[in-house]
Fold:
Amino acid sequence: MTGAKRGSAAKPGPTGREPRRIHGTIAHDLGVAIVTGRYKPGDILSGEVAFSEKLNVSRSVYREAIRILTAKGLVDSRPKTGTRVLPERDWNLLDPDVLAWMFEGEPSEAFINGLFELRGIVEPAAAAIAASRRDGGDLARMGHALEEMARHGLATAEGREADQRFHDAILQATRNAPLMSLSSSIGAAISWTTLFKQRKGKLPRDPLPEHRALYDAIAAGDPAAARGAMEELVRLALADTAVALAG
Structure:
């Protein structure tokens, strides 16, 4: 009976989606436990038999969850030594899931500052390139995102999604494939730091004016002004986060 019950937890439903939901949930829970320090680097996770019995899922579902964590650099799984938690230097910290898991706990000030340093390196250069390469479609996407930000505000999911679309449109306007590939990571960093400030009860100012100034510089085709506008936007966002951390 026990084996049948375990098997039923892993059998796909009519759409075939059930196992993906299960292993995604397991990967999420283990991922959060790792990045928030409940599992330490070097710790060996329970074997797949023990873990699958504890969670009442099939071993294949558990293995798939471990494959997800392995791909994100959180664990190393070997047949004879088991599944070992890797040090932070091996984690794919730009993976949107890993970023989300970090912010489910209390990320360190150093980690948050690191995200802003990354943004300060990447986004001003991207804005300058976008100013020289953007077309009407790019400007339309940026303008629509600004309208949605103004309408909904960053305290709402809709406003934060619009903010992400605005920054994504800038990266897409560079026509630079490596830069464009950073879009989901930059967007996740923006969204999670905004949520972090809200969780701390700190949204000290309306960031829309800086976004509009950036849009105007890109629309004018002025790379130097676009770079400066983005530098100011990131600087003020970091200052807001410092207020939240101090609170």
Notes: The chain has a mean pLDDT of 88. Residues 167 and 187 are 7 Å apart (CA to CA). The radius of gyration is 21 Å. The chain has twelve helices and two strands.
